[in-house]
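A.,

Following up on our hallway conversation. Structure tokens first:
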């Protein structure tokens, strides 16, 4: 393969008054990215700038890459290379036996260290476990992976090192000079992995340099704070919120009014996904007496006090209280404390705080990126999901019932009237088809439904709808595929279904087929995906208990939104339009032993 890696510089085409939304270090956290873009009201003609490290350390590296590729096909999106991005690409850049062996060894390391990697996710989509990547099979699986995900890999390889827009320059790690001519064509690694860049004495006059890579909290020696660092005099802005790296980290984004705006006009937002509380009492703040950073984090346990403990920092002898769960052991069994500060936050009654951990000692939490304790009373803030109705006026359709004109996939108006840009093309296609078929529906936007709490909140908002469990199945030969809809509380028994449809040895279908035929991914599977199955590779199976209700709920091919439709509209309008005839089954969820 042998890619030649050199510094590339790309100029962003930005107009006066055109907003730039800038985010760094997503690190495989798709939900945080989507929620932050919603929070920033990403839409209209905004330019989205992602300053490196799309992947690793989070659970959804592959989905992040695919999501960003989707946005970039339809909107002005610019993505620079990150050091982790490049490091992973280099792991598959050597086709030699030694290179393959190194890649297989990396899979083992990544599993132990981070619980997986981009490559684990790619292999899993193909139905291959990383445990199978051994011996002679390693080269075969590596080749198959690179062939299947060629587009994603090429997208990552093609990223520039530096992006410029007006007076702004975006680079993942940092640069030693503003002479871009001197940087172009050189080794990019020093500009991608430039540790502690802010403290190296650089300053700039022609550009405001925006970086990620080094968590902003590491620049603060007096407090634990993950908000961006603004150095106005030296024209440097460091925005990495420690997302995916720090236990209290968040995904940060900044909003530039346009590419010539001064730093004073920049706003920032962060998203962490932690629970939120409302303070019921005033608390006076106190600066941290102890601030632990990973450079010097070895500790000793002095006394456990419930879920809190008294600790001593080994190097300084300082004693402090911190949660038991805030420590970990290294390979040699030594105790270390995650980044921590024992400060008290200054909190007014009614303020909302993001809770990192709740212990006997109070709430270890966050206020505008600043981290510390709130020890007074509080109550949880529940996010109230509200289903919004969308009209049912039909658009033009052909004689077959399908849309008669190309779908407009470039966004729908948000509550502010601006075109929404954070939605994937596949989600917008669902809404467009429902509109054209005259099918009314209600929609709610929410966090990824990968926890019981998130699912329950969605179920409550879709009151009165049968919440479907959707399963993607295949036969042993991978020649027949099935989409099974059954009530969410019903247990699925393979043997029971096999007997009814005459297909033995059913298994769950691999994600690559789900993507190929239904244009969706695990967690987002939905009957709506049948609109893409033009060759009828997937047979729809519906448990008859679904028909007992008037409404049902499903994802619009993305699990950050849910919709509520009439079952009658599904059967009489949607399925005829996409030319799929369901097969009805009667599943009890029982086995012979039951």
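Then the amino acids I'd put at each of the 594 positions:
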């Amino acid at each position: 393969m042998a890619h030649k890696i050199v510094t590339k510089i790309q100029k962003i085409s930005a107009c006066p008054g055109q907003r730039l939304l800038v985010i760094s270090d997503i690190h495989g956290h798709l939900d945080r990215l989507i929620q932050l873009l919603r929070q920033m009201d990403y839409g209209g003609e905004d330019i989205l700038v992602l300053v490196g490290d799309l992947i690793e350390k989070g659970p959804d590296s592959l989905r992040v890459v695919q999501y960003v590729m989707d946005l970039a096909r339809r909107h002005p999106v610019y993505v620079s290379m990150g050091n982790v991005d490049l490091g992973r690409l280099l792991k598959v850049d050597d086709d030699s036996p030694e290179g393959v062996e190194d890649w297989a060894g990396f899979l083992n390391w990544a599993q132990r260290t981070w619980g997986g990697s981009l490559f684990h996710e790619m292999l899993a989509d193909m139905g291959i476990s990383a445990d199978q990547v051994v011996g002679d099979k390693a080269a075969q699986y590596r080749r198959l992976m690179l062939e299947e995900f060629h587009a994603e890999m090429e997208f990552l390889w093609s990223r520039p090192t530096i992006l410029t827009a007006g007076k702004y320059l975006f680079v993942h790690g940092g640069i030693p000079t503003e002479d871009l001519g001197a940087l172009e064509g050189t080794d990019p690694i020093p500009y991608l992995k430039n540790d502690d860049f802010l403290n190296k004495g650089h300053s700039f006059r022609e550009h405001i340099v925006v970086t990620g890579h080094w968590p902003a909290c590491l620049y603060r020696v007096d407090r634990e704070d993950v908000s961006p660092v603004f150095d106005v005099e030296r024209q440097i802005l460091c925005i990495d919120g420690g997302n995916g790296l720090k236990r209290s980290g968040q995904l940060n984004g900044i909003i530039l009014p346009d590419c010539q705006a001064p730093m004073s006009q920049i706003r920032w937002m962060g998203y962490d996904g932690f629970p939120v509380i409302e303070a019921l009492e005033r608390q006076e703040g106190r600066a941290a007496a102890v601030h632990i950073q990973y450079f010097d984090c070895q500790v000793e346990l002095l006394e456990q006090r419930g879920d809190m403990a008294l600790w001593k920092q080994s190097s300084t002898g300082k004693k402090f209280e911190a949660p038991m769960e805030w420590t970990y052991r290294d390979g040699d069994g030594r105790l270390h404390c995650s980044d921590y500060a024992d400060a008290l936050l200054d909190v007014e009654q009614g303020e909302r705080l993001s809770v990192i951990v709740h212990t006997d000692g109070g709430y270890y939490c966050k206020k505008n990126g600043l981290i510390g304790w709130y020890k007074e009373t509080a109550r949880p803030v529940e996010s109230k999901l509200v289903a919004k109705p969308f009209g049912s006026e039909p658009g033009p359709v052909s004689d077959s019932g399908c849309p008669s004109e190309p779908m407009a996939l470039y966004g729908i108006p948000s509550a502010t009237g601006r075109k929404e840009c954070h939605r994937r093309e596949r989600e917008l296609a669902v809404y467009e088809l429902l509109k054209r078929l005259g099918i009314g529906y209600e929609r709610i936007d929410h966090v990824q439904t990968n926890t019981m709490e998130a699912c329950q909140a969605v179920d409550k908002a879709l009151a009165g709808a049968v919440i479907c469990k959707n399963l993607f199945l295949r036969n042993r030969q991978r020649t027949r595929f099935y989409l099974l809809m059954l009530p969410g509380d019903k247990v699925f028994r393979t043997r029971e279904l096999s007997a009814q449809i005459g297909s033995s040895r059913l298994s769950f279908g691999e994600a690559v087929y789900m993507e190929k035929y239904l244009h969706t991914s695990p967690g987002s599977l939905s009957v709506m995906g049948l609109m893409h199955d033009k060759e009828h590779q997937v047979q729809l199976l519906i448990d008859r208990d679904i028909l007992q209700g008037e409404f049902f709920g499903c994802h619009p091919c993305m699990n950050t939104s849910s919709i509520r439709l009439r079952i009658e509209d599904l059967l009489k309008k949607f399925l005829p339009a996409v030319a799929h005839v369901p097969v009805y089954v009667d599943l009890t969820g029982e086995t012979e032993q039951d």
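The domain at 388-585 is CATH 3.90.960.10 (YbaK protein). Curious whether your intuition agrees with the design.

B.
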